[in-house]
What does this fold into?
Amino acid sequence: MKILVLDRHAMAAVQMVDFLREEGHHEVINAFNINDANSHWQYDGSPFDCLIVDITGPVDGLTEEEKNQTKEGWISGWIWLKNYILKEKPAFTPRVIIYSTQQTLQVLEEADPKAMKSGVSIICKNGSTSGVKLMLAQLEKISKLS
It folds into this structure.
């Protein structure tokens, strides 16, 4: 399965990629900001099977109007997903995992209540293994969609 991980924290992203590779997901690509993610999404030769997105991050790669919707970067990844990925390929929705902190998910729910019911998987980074286990279970479901 080919996975794109968007996470602004280099250490967290590298750890996620290493972990996923150890779990048997051999094609895992890092993106540290929306510009990187767009480049991979648009220009990689083969399509991704899954996106894992920490929705907090820099607003680079977004229009001024979109930047104003990000709640000062708290939900920039969601704005990118909603306006580009899910709009361009709505059938990709079940292949998206939002993996963010509880605080970020609360900001998302307040800013765009429809996001929580959009069909993407939403998993809380809670500092325990339960979030990781949920992500692995979701990746298993996604692998069966292919």
About this structure: Residues 3 and 28 are 5 Å apart (CA to CA). The domain at 2-143 is CATH 3.40.50.2300 (Rossmann fold).
